[in-house]
Design brief:
The protein is about 35% helix and about 25% strand. It is built from three helices and seven strands. About 20% of the residues are buried.
Length: about 100
């Protein structure tokens, strides 16, 4: 199953992401997080929802896991201007 988002090409079956035809090397969780954000682009997604969907566990406010994965995803996939923090709530992926 293939999809896209701007300059990104996503192949869910092969679990690959290309940015301007260059491969983006993502961990399993980073890939899952990116796909979920793309599927819900433009929507504000609460941290709890992201954590429960990606890690299949109850969100723990004290864990920095989600924040660290978002930070790495921004850097690896050059999303700093697209993946926005909605302070105190969650994240939104914008076009």
């Amino acid at each position: 199953k293939k999809g896209g988002f701007g300059d990104y090409k996503i192949d869910v079956t092969k679990r690959t992401v290309l940015y301007k035809n260059d491969p983006v090397r993502l961990s399993t969780k980073e890939f899952d997080l990116f796909v979920y954000l793309v599927q819900n682009k433009g929507q504000i997604i609460p941290k709890e929802t992201l954590y429960e969907r990606i890690w299949e566990d109850e969100y723990n406010d004290e864990s920095r896991t989600l924040e660290l994965h978002v930070q790495r995803l921004r850097k690896k996939a050059m999303l700093s201007d697209k993946l926005n923090t909605v302070y105190g709530y969650g994240y939104r992926l914008d076009n």
